[in-house]
Amino acid sequence: AENGKPTTRRYSVEEKAAAVRMVRTLRAELGVTQGTVQRVATQLGHGVESVRTWVKQADIDDGNVVGLTTAEARRMRELEQEVRELRGRTRY
């Protein structure tokens, strides 16, 4: 990678969804959560932390876990940007 940064692979929405589905299926079948992310990530050749993050976000988006949904987080970023722009224009 240029400028010495590691290349971050961009995963498609489909790839993320498939990984999340696999983790959830495995958890349902095994009745455990321990090690499921690791197994799926290794099988698919994805980063473990990436898969862990997607599962966590999917749980929030589906309302299984308390947190900001992807849509809410996006809206929050938009509002924060708006506030920054408004502040930039107002000089007291």
Structure description:
The protein is mainly α and 92 residues long. Helix content is 66%, strand content 0%. The protein has four helices and no strands. The protein has helices at 13-30, 36-44, 48-61, 70-89. Helix 1 crosses helix 2 (36-44), helix 1 (13-30) crosses helix 3 (48-61) and helix 2 packs across helix 3 (48-61). The longest helix is centred in the last third of the chain and has 20 residues, at 70-89. The protein is elongated. 11% of the residues are buried.
- H/E element order: HHHH
* Overall mean pLDDT: 90
Strand content: under 5%
How is the main sheet built? none
* Number of DSSP helical runs: 4
By DSSP, the count of extended strands is 0
**Low-confidence runs:** none
Class derived from helix and strand content: mainly alpha
User: Roughly how many Å is the radius of gyration?
Assistant: 18 Å
Distance between the termini: 46 Å
Helix content estimate: 55-70%
So what's the overall shape?
elongated
Q: Which features would summarize this protein structure in a list?
A:
single chain, about 90 residues, mainly alpha
Write the layout of secondary structure elements.
Layout: H1 13-30, H2 36-44, H3 48-61, H4 70-89
Helix pairs in contact: 1-2, 1-3, 2-3
Short description:
With 92 residues, the chain is mostly helical. It has helices at 13-30, 36-44, 48-61, 70-89.
